[in-house]
Structure formats: C-alpha cells, structure tokens
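To: structure subgroup
Subject: Chain for Friday's discussion

All,

I'm putting the inputs and outputs inline so they're searchable in the archive.
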Amino acid sequence: MTTSTKESIIIVCAADNRYAMPLAVVIRSVLENVRSDRLCTFFIIDGGISQKNKNKILKVSDSKQCIITWLKPPDDILDNMKVSGHIKVATYYKILIPILLPDNYCKAIYLDSDLIVQGDLGKLWDINIENNYLLAVQDSGIPYVSSYYGLQNYKELGIPLDYKYFNAGVLVLNLEKMRKQSTSTQVIQYLEDNKQHIRWHDQDGLNAVLAGKWGELEPRWNQLPSIYNNSSWKDSPFSQEEFTNALKEPYIIHFASSSKPWNSTVYHPANDLFFHYLDMTPWVGWRWTIWRRIWRKIIQKIQFYKEKYQGYCGVQKAVRFKKNFSCG
C-alpha cells in the first residue's frame, strides 16, 4: 500500500499527570525524526493532565507539522479494571481507541508514554496492516503465550502454546476491523472476567482476545530492556539480523518496567538520549536528583496510607450499611 506524503500520521498516546513530562518527550522525539513533509496528528487521551502541563505539551508541538487533540475517556467503562500500586486506570485507555477516535479514522499508531522514537514514524505508518487487527512486536521477555510470564490461562482459552505474545507499547491499529468486531468490548469483558489471571493488565487482555490475529513488526520498532538480557541473538526469539537491528539501530526505544530515566536509578543505555529530547521541551534541565527521589518516596508513602485508609473506610461503611439494612 502506498501512502501519500500529504496524509497525516495518526498517533494516539494516553497519560495522566504523572506521565505529562515523558509524554512531551515522546512527541518531541517523533517530530525530530519524522520527515519534514509529513503531518502528525496526535490524539492524547487525557487521564487528568493539569492545564499547566497541557500548555507545556502544546509548546512542544508548536509547529505546522503537528496537531494535538485532547480526548476525555469515559472512565466508567473501565470501573472494574484491575489496578494496583503504580498501575492506574490510564493504563487501559489504549483499549478504548477504536471507540474514542471518530469513525472516519480507520488506522492509528499507538505509543506508550515511556519511550523515545529514533526512526521516521512515517515508515511505520506506511506498512500495510492487511487483514490483521493490529501490528505489534513480539515481546522479547515474554515471547509466547505459554512463556513463564505469558497468559496464565492460555490452555483454558484454547490458545496453542506456540502462539506469540506481543508487547502493547507500540501498536498499529486496524480501527475499522476492531470496530466491526467490537474488540474493545471483548477485551474489557475478558479483563473483568479473568482478574485472577491478569498480570500485565491491558496487554494480557489484548493478547488473549487477539491471539493469532495480529501481524508482526520488526523488533526495532519496539526495543524492550529485556533484549539486553540476551547474551546473543540465539537467546532471543528473533533472527540474527532482527536482533542486531533492534539492539544497535532501534527505531523506538521503550523504557518499559523499571527502566524509566525520569524516576529510576536503573541504568539504561539510552538514558542520555531521553534527556537529549527532554531538553528540547519546557522541562529543559530537569534531572532525577537525590532530593526528587526522597520526595517521591514520601509521596508514595502518603499515597499508600491514603489508599489503605480509604479501603478501611469503605469496609466500615459497608459493615454499617449491612447492619442498618439487617435491622430495617
């Protein structure tokens, strides 16, 4: 399929206020590497980004090459999703993309807010999605549904053990097909019905519902930190060429898990690249200092006790209601 250079690349991201800064880095990295004759239209699913941070993000995208539209998610649809610790409801927003985007959009690229783009995203946009529901990269740390950290219930679902498991941080979505088959509804239903089996949240849901129905992208389109755990390409699920390209010349570097440069002391080879793009945003000069680490620990403690207290109050309220109802 040949795509006109005048066609806009549709990109969807999702973030709450905690991810406003890294989201700005994503946008800047896209614009720095896409061809100058390509227009990028960003749809940002807003999980509670402050107006101050929205204004900063708009400054990042202040160019004739970029348009930003904010989308408000209907959180009630996701009321029954499994959340815990740092995993908030915003994690699941990508599931709603076929519903949230206007029907005239038949295709979109989804990008997590913890990555940087090093290649021309126009090349990803121009890949023929064919009859697949989506295109994605096989997860280098969880290569198959039957892997140790794969789908716990793949046997019960009747999914063959050699079916590949994809990482959901970078996706090319066939919106038209997903709408026709009500994929969003199916994934939400699966996540609600299988909470005891869910470990990787939205990613588990997408892999369970779309097992065997997705197409593969080159691994360089979603380089995961787990690739550095392989001593050679033979330890990975990829060919020698794929492995080398992903390791040495990745198009997208995904700071998945605990490797995030802005709030972790875990070393990642691309940390300097992240801050290179960060310094092209209104957050220029921001660094992860010892004082920020201490402050983050304090906030985490406060949040932990707040959630614990709210949970306790909820139980007490339920107990009082039950007593009153019983006496009524």
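Points worth raising on Friday:
The first strand starts at residue 9 and ends at 15.
The chain has ten helices and nine strands.

D.
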